[in-house]
Amino acid sequence: MYDLVILGAGPAGLAASAYATRKGIEFVTVAESLGGKGSERVAFPGPAEHRVVRPEQLLADFRRELEYLVERHRRGLARSVVPRERGLVITVETDDGSHEIEARSAVVATGTRLRRLGVPGELEYFGRGLGYSAVSYSHLLHGCDVVVHGDGRRSVDSALEVSRYARSVTVLLERVEGSRELYRNKLREASNVTMLDDCSIAGFDGDDFCRTVRLAYPSGELREIEADAFFVELQPEPNSEMVADLVELNEDGYIVVDLWNRTSAPGVFAAGDVTAAGFEQSLVAVGDGVKALISAYSHLNWGL
Ligand SMILES: Cc1cc2nc3c(=O)[nH]c(=O)nc-3n(C[C@H](O)[C@H](O)[C@H](O)COP(=O)(O)OP(=O)(O)OC[C@H]3O[C@@H](n4cnc5c(N)ncnc54)[C@H](O)[C@@H]3O)c2cc1C
Question: How far is the CA of 40 from the centre of ligand 1 (A)?
Answer without folding.
Answer: 8
